[in-house]
Amino acid sequence: QWRAAAVAGDAAHRAYLVRIALLFGLGAANYMALLYFAPVLAAAAVLRKPSLLRDARLIALCALAFAAGMSLYLYLPLRSMTDPPVDWDNPETLRNFLFALSRRRWGGSFQFSTAMLPYVRPWLASIRMPEQFGLPVLGLAGAGLIFLAVRVPMMAAVIMLCFLSHAVLMTAMQCSQPHLWNSDFFSEYTLTDFHIPLYVL
Q1: Could you tell me if 52 and 59 are in contact, meaning their C-beta atoms sit under 8 angstroms apart?
Q2: Which of 63-72, 87-96, 103-112 has the highest mean pLDDT?
Q3: DSSP 8-state secondary structure symbol assigned to residue 16
Q4: Cα-based angle 15, 34, 187 (whole degrees, multiple of 5)
Q5: Is the dihedral of CA 100, 104, 107, 111 positive or negative?
Q6: Is 73 exposed, middle or buried (0-12, 13-18, 19+ CB in 10 A)?
Q7: Lowest CB count within 10 Å: 54, 124, 133, 177, which one?
Q8: Which residues contact 199 (CB under 8 A, 6 or more apart)?
Q9: DSSP labels for 149-197?
Q10: Residue range 34-54, pLDDT digits in tens
Q11: Are the C-beta atoms of residues 13 and 5 closer than 8 Å to each other?
């Protein structure tokens, strides 16, 4: 809808972008790895409508809408004050809240080392698209993507780049964490949960 409005020069495209920012914030509040899509989506919007970069008011509105969606995290310190049985990082203080929000418990930053290389392949193998959907459904998805590429090339490119962005950045993030450099992590845990955004795409 945003693309159609932007192409048509409809002023409603501004409202669509604000709504998209709000929904993206809500999504990221539930699963922060959605932020891996942000560079691709932002680039696609700017390529479609370069004037967005000069619209400071719209950028501010989108930032506020995104922050409103992410504000669900403010529930963490409130819930933590009741001392629940599961209280990761005890985010009652500002320091602990920021620690939880930055996901430092899970590494929080890239720490590249050659020690991570043996784990890249099993991580990528854990995506298991054929097991998730079966080959007939993957065939339909491929046909749908080709159809979309013919009809709306930009949208097909955005979907594929979001897929690659998430796959590459999630692989780099997870495989660069020293506490994951053991085969037990790949055999003991069901890693498919990490790949849900890829399945949705």
Answers
A1: yes
A2: 63-72
A3: H
A4: 165
A5: positive
A6: middle
A7: 54
A8: 129, 132, 133
A9: HHH-HHHHHHHHHHHHHHHHHHHHHHHT-GGG-SHHHHHHS-GGGGGHH
A10: 888 999 999 999 999 999 999
A11: yes
Within 8 A by CB and 6+ apart from 78, the residues are none
Helix spans in 31-182 (H): 38-48, 56-70, 75-80, 94-101, 117-125, 129-133, 135-151, 153-175
Q: Residue 58 — φ and ψ, nearest 5°?
A: -65, -40
Dihedral of alpha carbons 82, 83, 87, 90, sign:
positive
pTM of the model: 0.80
Largest CA distance in the chain: 55
Expressed in angstroms, the distance from the first to the final Cα of the chain is 18
Look up residue 148 and give its two tokens.
């979309």
